[in-house]
Structure formats: structure tokens, C-alpha cells
């Protein structure tokens, strides 16, 4: 796939997409968002891809935030709402995709960059990374799900503190707060992300999709409803050929060969 602002690589069943506007700290402009939409559609619908990794090029930033010049050019509240809804749809596409999405945060992930990472399933960070939602310093607020996903991760009070103050967190601080799952030396980050992605790519695709859906939806409903939905999704997974292969391989003491159905 060819893009102006993204780099595409596929290694087996793992797709690696790098934000590639290093001269602008990989800031998200409209063209980049449009290209990311194409990536999401491609990954979601291509059976040769099992896992998506998002990272940044240039070594300094994952995504440094939104394109400030484009924000400055907004002429009305209506345009602001439209921009946010467009970006929110892209983040939802990552969150709802039936395949794991890993954010390899290799530098600054601020504003819209952290919001995209929050929509991913697993966040790995370089020890040099810095994350935050500093929109308040621009006279605006996070608009791509940041107020909602951050609060769900760290709790209402801490989310308010971080958003009201626009604080930047180190990778270690983000790890301690549960914003990222693992921190690695910068030179090891992408290799560790690829290692994890390769492991996930060997799993049964339907089971991964059902597990992701159960967790994402279940946290937003009551426990009884969530458990009933879990049972339904378990039933879907249990009825697949992969379930028969997985249980058979366990009993036969061999590695399973999943086919995605």
C-alpha cells in the first residue's frame, strides 16, 4: 500500500504501520486520518493479516498530536464537531476491529496521538516515550475519545487531573498508572512489539475477535449482562473448526494449526 504520510510493511500475518511526518512530529492532519481509514479497512478485511502494529517514524514521536494549523483554521463549532466525529470514527475502527492492535509508542504521544494509542488493544512504550493530553493549553479539550478512554483506564479523578493540567507523563509513570502495559529500552521496542504480534498471530482468529469484543463491550454494561454476552461469544468460538483443532491439538500434545473458521 502506498501513502504520503504512512509507511506500510507486512511481515507474515503482522502489518506494521508507521506515522511518517517526522518534520511535524508525525502530527495527525486530515490526509493522515484519511490514510489511516484505508489501513483500518485493509487490515479488517484482509485474512492474510492477523495483527496490526502502529508506531512512529523518525525516532522522536509516535504521534505528537493533531495538526495545530488545521485546528487553527476551523471556522465554526460545527466544523469542530465534524472533525472530532471523523477522528472518533477512526479510533472506534481500531477499537472495534476483530483483530489485535498494538501501539508501539516510540516517542511523544500527545493529544490525538495518545487518543489513538488509547483506542489500541495493547500499548507498549519506549523508556524515552512521553504521553499526555495537553489540549487544555490550546484552549480546547481532547476530542478523539480521550476524556472517555483515559477515565475508563485510570479513573475519573486522575483523568480530570491529567486533562485539567495537561500533564506529560514519562513512560514509567504511564506504566504505573496502567496507561501502557510494558516499557522497553527504545532500541528494543519495535522488536518486542513484533514478537508479541507474531505470538498473537498464531492464535485462533475468531477466538481473539470474540475475546476482544467481550472485554470491550462488557466493561460498559452490568456484570450479569456482560456474563450473558460472554457466554454467547464463547458459544460462537466453541462452534468453530479452530476450537476443534485447538482442543484436539491439546489432547494430542501437538501445536494447533488454526485456519480462522
UniProtKB/TrEMBL annotation:
Pfam families reported for this sequence: ECH_1
Gene3D superfamilies: 2-enoyl-CoA Hydratase, Chain A, domain 1 (3.90.226.10), Lyase 2-enoyl-coa Hydratase, Chain A, domain 2 (1.10.12.10)
Enzyme class: lyase
Lineage: superkingdom: Bacteria
Record field: catalytic activity: a short-chain (3S)-3-hydroxyacyl-CoA = a short-chain (2E)-enoyl-CoA + H2O
The family this protein is said to belong to: Belongs to the enoyl-CoA hydratase/isomerase family.
Protein name: short-chain-enoyl-CoA hydratase
Amino acid at each position: 500500500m502506498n501513502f504520503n504520510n504512512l509507511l506500510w510493511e507486512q511481515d507474515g500475518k503482522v502489518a506494521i504501520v508507521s506515522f511518517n511526518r517526522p518534520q511535524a512530529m508525525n502530527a495527525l492532519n486530515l490526509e493522515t486520518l484519511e490514510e489511516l481509514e484505508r489501513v483500518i479497512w485493509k487490515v479488517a478485511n484482509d485474512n492474510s493479516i492477523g495483527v496490526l502494529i502502529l508506531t512512529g517514524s523518525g525516532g522522536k514521536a509516535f504521534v505528537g498530536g493533531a495538526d495545530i494549523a488545521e485546528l487553527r483554521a476551523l471556522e465554526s463549532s460545527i466544523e469542530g464537531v465534524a472533525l472530532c466525529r471523523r477522528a472518533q470514527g477512526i479510533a472506534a475502527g481500531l477499537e472495534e476491529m476483530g483483530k489485535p492492535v498494538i501501539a508501539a509508542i516510540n516517542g511523544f504521544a500527545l493529544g490525538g496521538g495518545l487518543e489513538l494509542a488509547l483506542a489500541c488493544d495493547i500499548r507498549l512504550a519506549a523508556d524515552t516515550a512521553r504521553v499526555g493530553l495537553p489540549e487544555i493549553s490550546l484552549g480546547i479539550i481532547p476530542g478523539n475519545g480521550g476524556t472517555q478512554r483515559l477515565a475508563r483506564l485510570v479513573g475519573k479523578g486522575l483523568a480530570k487531573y491529567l486533562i485539567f493540567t495537561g500533564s506529560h507523563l514519562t513512560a514509567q509513570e504511564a506504566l504505573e498508572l496502567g496507561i501502557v502495559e510494558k516499557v522497553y529500552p527504545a532500541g528494543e521496542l519495535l522488536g518486542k512489539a513484533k514478537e508479541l504480534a507474531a505470538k498473537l498471530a498464531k492464535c485462533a482468529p475468531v477466538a481473539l475477535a470474540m475475546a476482544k469484543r467481550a472485554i470491550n463491550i462488557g466493561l460498559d454494561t452490568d456484570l450479569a449482562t456482560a456474563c450473558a454476552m460472554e457466554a454467547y461469544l464463547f458459544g460462537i468460538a466453541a462452534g468453530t473448526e479452530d476450537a476443534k483443532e485447538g482442543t484436539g491439538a491439546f489432547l494430542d500434545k501437538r501445536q494447533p494449526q488454526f485456519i480462522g473458521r
